[in-house]
Amino acid sequence: MKKDNKKAVFIFLRYLILVLIALPNLFLFYFIFAPLTIYPVNSILSIFYHTNLIGNQITLSNISIELVDACIAGSAYYLLILLNLSIPMNLKKRIYSIAFSFLIFLAINIIRISLFSILLVNSFQYFDITHKIFWYILSGVIVFIIWFITIKTFKIKDVPFYSDIKFLLGKTKK
């Protein structure tokens, strides 16, 4: 198989993986990252409070905190993998860059949930507005900052989607 044909096949496979991962409703991300988020958050909170963990609900100081899918942020992980799979790179670099970005986001998310839980338990006056600002504005900013750190760390030169489209259009003109 010619190098260009092989590259086109890999482009198709990358985008097929993106579609398959998204089905059904990002289940794979929630299945993997829910326990990786809930248990560390419970462990951190148990340093400061007596906690009781049942499923995805942590009870502390008579306040019950339910870590719903939005807290786990499966869509943020999907956005990171979407950005990663929408550019050409070798497999080793891809695996390391995905793991790198996922681990950074996981750590930030665990810290975020732990801090917001502490703010809630301590009746922080501006909890609701702070929570909404993080949810609606800063969550996307955090993902893009992580992506830019990944680009710099792994010296990624291509542009998501554009590099693939440019290659494919170049092949159709020939």
DSSP strand count: 3
Strand and helix order: HHEEEHHHHH
Helical fraction equals over 70%
- Strand fraction: 5-15%
> Going across the major beta sheet, what is the strand order?
1-2-3
Count of discrete alpha- or pi-helical segments spanning 4 or more residues: 7
Secondary structure topology:
Blueprint: H1 3-22, H2 27-48, E1 51-54, E2 57-60, E3 63-66, H3 69-72, H4 74-85, H5 91-121, H6 127-153, H7 162-173
Antiparallel strand pairs: 1-2, 2-3
Helix pairs in contact: 1-4, 2-4, 2-5, 4-5, 4-6, 5-6
Structure commentary:
The protein has 174 residues and is mainly alpha-helical. It has one domain (3-173). Helices cover 74% and strands 7% of the residues. It contains 7 helices and 3 strands. Strands 1-2-3 form a 3-stranded antiparallel beta sheet, covered by helices on one side. Strand 1 (51-54) and strand 2 (57-60) form a beta hairpin. Helix 2 (27-48) crosses helix 4 (74-85) and helix 4 packs parallel to helix 6 (127-153). The model has no long low-confidence stretch (mean pLDDT 93).
Short account of what is shown:
By secondary structure, the chain is mostly helical.
Which key features would you list for this structure?
7% strand, 7 helices, elongated, three-stranded antiparallel beta sheet, mainly alpha
